[in-house]
Amino acid sequence: MWWIGAVGLSLGISVFGQAGNPVGRQYALLKPVAGEHPVVEASAERVFTLPPTRQSGLLTLRADVREVQLFFTASNAQSQFVSGLRPDDITILDDGIPATITGFQQESNLPIEVGLLMDLSRSLQRQRPAERMAAEAFLRSLLSGPDDRAFVVAFSTKIRTLQMATSDHALLAASIERSLDAVPSSGLTSLFDAICVSVQQGFPVHDGSQSRRRALIILSDGDDTDSVHSLSDAIAAAQSSGIAIYGIAIQNPRNNNGAGALRQLAQATGGRVFTVSKKLSATQAFAVIQNELRMQYGVTFRPSQTSPGFHTLQVIPTENHELSFRFRTAYKVR
């Protein structure tokens, strides 16, 4: 038995909707895996067959029987996290059809893998010192387990990985410290490209023996002015790999529309958005995100069908309608 904890790294043209890379861009997107066997892009599949093979840095699965794993958080009417739920407290709707739940637990001890994306566009220069200090403290506190990992990416119109996935606090802190000089400030921003590249290339490839919680934390005003990929491409990339997106929105006096894109990214992937203000600091936002990642539930269910494409997901309360849930709204089978 092989448990694939993060499937869907084969995000190529079919997901992103782009067939090339503009001249002068400082990053590259991997090509989709070709082969006769289907690539299953639903996150955290349990596969009862041969182990996965790695081709071109991507996972290819030979999938026959599978269970989809979904992470979600629960809160009450007062927006407080709710623990102690049981399987019969929720209903999973897979394409609108109630799914058979095969596993359920609160995943407080599972390894966490986080990508920190830092927007270094010119419009956010004044906020950088506060962001940097809060981000360093967040990663120091979050990475407490032996298998926890984080990576750091800086972007404006260019995208650069400052630190590959590691558990070394010193390396992560050093990468954040040098972020100011890592990418030239620009009036343009490639947020959606940064998300797609981070989803595809930032997270480690595993043998699938253990499930992992995965998230992208984005420090940005949410404005995108220079991406090849669209908002829907970024959502599809994250949903396909089961990655929750959390936004820490830095207010930009020149543009108030960017936070809307962050909210759409978060809502579709099971994350949240926090707007930094006089009432809420970046440090406080990071603390809430850390707590939420530790309060997630994990549920596995048998899919109602395995036809290729995206399938919608819903988590609804069985009886207690004061409960609300955050979860990714789709998974993909190819």
Explain this structure to me?
- This protein has 334 residues and is α+β, with helices and mostly antiparallel strands.
- Helices cover 22% and strands 29% of the residues.
- It contains 7 helices and 18 strands.
- Strands 1, 2, 5, 8, 15 and 17 form a 6-stranded antiparallel sheet that branches. It has a 6-stranded mixed sheet with strand order 11-10-9-12-13-14, with helices on both faces. A 4-stranded antiparallel sheet has the order 7-6-16-18, with no helix packed on it.
- Helix 5 packs parallel to helix 6.
- The longest helix has 15 residues.
- It is globular, with a radius of gyration of 19 Å.
- The relative contact order is 0.22.
| Total domain units | 2
CATH second-level architecture of the largest domain: 3-Layer(aba) Sandwich
Unreliable stretches covering 5 or more consecutive residues = 1-65
Which outline best applies?
A: globular
Estimated radius of gyration:
19 Å
Major β-sheet annotation? 6 strands, antiparallel
Structural class estimated from helices and strands: alpha+beta
CATH fold name of the largest domain: Rossmann fold
Look at the structure and give the mean pLDDT.
78
Continuous helix count: 7
H/E element order? EHEEEEEEEEHEEHHEHEHEHEEEE
Helix proportion range: 10-25%
CATH superfamily of the largest domain: von Willebrand factor, type A domain
How far apart lie the N and C ends? Answer: 21 Å
| CATH top level assignment of the largest domain | Alpha Beta
Beta content comes to 25-35%
Number of strands: 18
